[in-house]
Fold:
Amino acid sequence: MDRTLVVHVLVLLGLTGLGVVTAQAAGPEPARRAELVRMVRQDCGSCHGMTLKGGLGPALLPESLAGKPSASLVATVMSGRPGTPMPGWSRFVNEAEAEWIIQRLQEGFPPVALGAGS
Amino acid sequence: MSRLVRCCQALCAAAALLLSACAHQPTAEVRGTGDLGIVIERATGSVQIVDHSRQTSLGRVEGLGDLSHAHATYSRDGRYAYVFGRDGGLTKVDLLARRIDRRVVQAGNSIGGSISQDGRLVVAQNYEPGGIKAFDAQTLELVSEVPAEYAPGQFSKVVGLADVSGNRFAYALFEAGEIWVTDFSTPAAPVTQRYPAGKQPYDGLVTPGGRYFMAGLFGEDGVSLLDLWQPGQGARRILGGYGRGEEKLPVYKMPHLRGWAVADGKAYLPAVGRHEVLVVDLTTWQEVGRIPVAGQPVFVMARPDGRQVWVNFAFPDNAQVQVIDTLDRRLLTTLSPGKAVLHMEFTPRGEHVWVSSRDDNRVTIYDTDTLQPLKVLPAQAPSGIFFTARAGRIGF
Structure:
């Protein structure tokens, strides 16, 4: 019994190790995803609206982003847009995470998990 | 005779109304509203009605829509809160009956509003469609509107709306770079004056007493100042060193100028992008000092007596609140009221301050003398806290 548990833990650890290697392709880990979702809703939300329908910054809904090249949107998130209030977020997210955020925005952003204090 | 009958009928109807009103009222007690307020619950579209004498929540009112970045202003009798939601909802909440009295959805994207000097008009400032709208404070019927069309076909977002004397409202236009002052003396036919202000004003305020309207500029350094006693002189630039400076630091949340602290002849304001509170002399409009703080300040608020200034911060430093002693401009303490501190509200005479922590779902009440927490009240993702004492203040 104990032994199987140990094996399980080892297998799990191994998987997490693999997960780190493949994170670039598969996107951030679930816990980090939850953080990113909260960050977008709350902190990006202070300018783009918690529902992302816009505020001082434009709406970030699928229809408002449609047709805009992902790479330039990712660049906007990482480096900001000089001359506008849009700041760069590279201090807080890496390129892969910014890509993940833009993809989610393009397909309709998930709500903050319930109980997460949103 | 028939008159008597009609009179009786009217009386009966009134009695029935009273009864039904009583049914709504959780307590039958007769009370004032001077020590009441609301706490905005951002994510659930609700507000809690609170009593700051007894430090309790009296109940919750639901159904106010999207309350991210919500703002509230009060009827001059302090009974009704007008809550402006991000989704353009304007809800009139009855603090005594603890229910929604009226509600309209008046715009696509709104940021706040204010009440007129005579208490008869509630004016909303909108991002989309850009402009302001005036509503009858009693019925919430639209009375008139001023679209922020600064050039043919071009509309601007409106920021920093403040009520000033003469039933006027002063506000700034982000894209247009102008300050507008609209006179609602004839509510259905408002008259607007325009003043060039500078690049990208992002918020505004009136000084206590209502003489000066100031707009913070994002697109250039400095603050635009309009003397409302002599508006004909136009807006002038002050505080050339106020802004992001050469390095153009990223700003993760726009600072709020409302509640800008004035204490001991000096104004304390949030630096833009920098971890500093700026101290400005109000007679010369010159900067006289900078106080290093824990992050990019969002609200810099003076205790009503001016002796302390309380500061909260933008992401990622928003789990702290710092308190400055204005006598020697020294940091008194750093507090940890919880994650994502969004707002603070002093009791009218400043012995307590209520602080909201969005991510820890609570409001902490501090004693401003001992700087110790007195009580913690649970709330769902609380943001703004607004006490009825605002009803009697210019620019709130």
In short: Chain A has one domain: 29-117.
